[in-house]
Design goal:
CATH class: Mainly Alpha
Distance between the termini: 33 Å
Number of helices: 6
CATH topology: Tetracycline Repressor, domain 2
Structural class: mainly alpha
Radius of gyration: 14 Å
Order of helices and strands: HHHHHH
Largest sheet: none
């Protein structure tokens, strides 16, 4: 589990960090990370992590990792001035996870960063 989280973190920090006060920059950053996590370099780790979500024996570790990600999103949303960051962070997380699932499981599906950026941005308002 720790190795998968390391790979996720490597994917999340591979590019330049966004201006956390700009909702558009944060949304584009998150959408770009979904594209990166579904790229040939990271897709196997992404598939493994998604498979572990369904493994009851990994539940606690997956819950903890998810909580860390939600906390990070909440902080980002707070810094960008969102009035209610907790439910917005859950909605953004759900959207990003759904994009990951569909992209790694449906061969014809690709991440269109601009479209995903707009969807994330709408949830961040």
């Amino acid at each position: 589990m720790a190795r998968l989280e390391e790979l996720d973190l490597a994917a999340l920090t591979a590019g330049p960090q966004p201006d956390m006060t700009s909702p558009h920059a944060v949304a584009a950053y998150l959408a770009g990370n979904v594209q990166r996590m579904t790229s040939p370099r990271y897709v196997r780790a992404t598939r493994a992590r998604l498979a572990l979500l369904l493994d009851e024996s990994a539940g606690r570790a997956m819950d903890e990792g998810h909580r860390r990600f939600l906390t990070m999103l909440e902080v980002v949303l707070q810094e960008s001035g969102h009035p209610d960051p907790e439910p917005a962070a859950r909605a953004v997380s759900d959207l990003l996870e759904g994009a990951l699932v569909h992209t790694v499981s449906v061969r014809s599906r690709r991440v269109v960063v601009e479209e995903l950026t707009r969807a994330v941005e709408r949830l961040m308002r």
